[in-house]
Amino acid sequence: MESNRQLARIKTRHLEGFAAIARHGSLKAACASLHLSPPALSKTLKELEEILGVTLMSRDRGGVRLTPEGEVFLEFAGQSLAALRRGVEGVASLRRGGAELLRVGTLPSVAARLMPPAVARFAELSPTTRVVLRDGAHGALTDELRAGALDMVIGRMAGPEAMQGLSFTQLYLERVVCVARPGHPLVSAAGLNPADLSGWPVIYPPERAAIRPLVDRWCLAEGVTGLVRVVDSVSGAFGRSFLRECDALWFISEGVVARDVADGRLTVLPLEMGLTAGPVGLMTRPDSLASRSRDLFARALRDVAARIGDS
């Protein structure tokens, strides 16, 4: 009886506020994401703790930390919010004529190479599902996945901290390549070795990019020093345009530039970069509810990834 009374008093705003604070690790960041003032969000959390009769979070200079009770409640609060969102979307899909909605986040390493054939294959498997693609940086997309705003994210596996709370299913391995425009002096250089890259301006992966530690490790192992970094970026649009303007080099996942290389617009320098190989795969929330569309999209990804792996 007591649990029923507690359930009747818990509102969606309580769950969303608690989940946002846990996700961001700070009250200030959670307020910004929810467009609420700190007093309003603090009041919402206090109401929830009073309803449950426990302390869900402790606050210190390091931020907000979940209590054991908070850890337990967060898991089920996330499941409840995910189920509620899916229910709302299901009603909306009926209004649109019954089409199911699938929200997919794509990282740059897969947006150009994997996703076009995967979406085409998925259209054959589930022609009535509406796919919404969202591209962006790893941290931004995985944050949206944890929040339930995305159903899955496709891309490279990042470090342990960035992958916390997510499930990862590997599709294939992908290396980083160093590319240049076809007429670059290093393209025709005989016996090219990593030391020859020194002194040339480069586009280098930024700090939060999944490939940054891999490229750092490769440069350290190969003794590559003296790189003149023009800009830290993984933007495909910028990289393609910039290399047409100058003799810069570009460290980027091979999937981003696979089509450019095949069409002769860019050239991969003949360097052994197997040390940069890392898994590309499907990221989901382990507590989310799998749908028919999500399962079929995963199948489409596996079908296309098998062809990439063979190549």
TrEMBL record:
Annotated ranges, domain HTH lysR-type: 10-67
Pfam families named among the record's database cross-references: HTH_1, LysR_substrate
Biological process terms in GO annotation: 3,4-dihydroxybenzoate catabolic process; positive regulation of DNA-templated transcription
Record-level Gene Ontology MF annotations: DNA binding; DNA-binding transcription factor activity
This protein's GO CC annotations: cytosol
Keywords on record: DNA-binding, Transcription, Transcription regulation
UniProt record similarity statement: Belongs to the LysR transcriptional regulatory family.
PANTHER family membership: HTH-TYPE TRANSCRIPTIONAL REGULATOR YBHD, NITROGEN ASSIMILATION TRANSCRIPTIONAL ACTIVATOR-RELATED
Protein name (Swiss-Prot/TrEMBL): LysR family transcriptional regulator
Biological source species: Pseudoponticoccus marisrubri
Lineage: Bacteria, Pseudomonadati, Pseudomonadota, Alphaproteobacteria, Rhodobacterales
